[in-house]
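It is worth pausing here to work through a concrete case rather than discussing structure prediction in the abstract. The textbook approach is simple: state the sequence, then state the predicted structure, then interpret. We follow exactly that order.
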Amino acid sequence: MHRERLGPLLVGLWALLLLAVLLAPSLGESADPGDDLTRHTVRLALLCYAPAVAIVLLLRPDEWRGLSWRVRAARWYWSLGLATYLIHLGMAFHYYHHWSHAEAIAHVEARSGFGPGIYLSHLFTLAWTADVLWWWTWAESYAERPSWIDRALHGFMAFVTFNATVVYETGPIRWAGALLFAGLAVVFVLRWRARPERGVVA
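Step two, the predicted structure:
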C-alpha cells in the first residue's frame, strides 16, 4: 500500500463510521440517543484499538526503525482510537454526568463500588494521549524506547479496557470484549517470545 494514501484512507473510513455512529440515533428514532451515542462511540474506539495493538505485537524491529506501512497503520489506528475515545468521554460527561465530576464519581461508585476509580480512567486518558503525541512528534525516539514502557502502558490500558468491557458491561459488548482479549492473547502468546525486543532494553 502506498504510504501517502494510507493515512487519508484510514481517516476517511473512520470519518464515515463516526458519522454513521453520530447519525444513527436520529435516523433510527432511538429511545435514548445519549446512551446510544455514548456506547457506540466507545465501540468504535475499540474497533480502532484492537488492530493497533495486534499490529504492534506483530511488528519486527526493522519495521519500527524504517517506519514501515504497518507501523504507520498502527499509528493511525492508535490515534483514531484515541480521537474516538475522547469523543466518547464527551458524550458520557454530557449525557450521563451533566459535566459534573462529582456525578461521574458517584456513577463509578454505583457501578464498581469504588468512586475514586475514576482517576484510573483519567490516567488512562492521559497515558493514551501522551503516547500518541510521542509517536507523532518524536517517531525515532518512540521506535527506540525501552520495551518496559510498552509493557507498562499496554498492560495498564488492557487492564482498564478489560474491566470496562468485560467486568462491568453486560450483553453484546461483554462478549465482544471477551473475544477481543482472547484474540489479542493468542497473538501475544504466538508472537511475543518469537520476536526480538525493539529499542534499547533498560
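Step three, interpretation. The two ends are 34 Å apart (CA to CA). The chain is about 80% helix and 0% strand.
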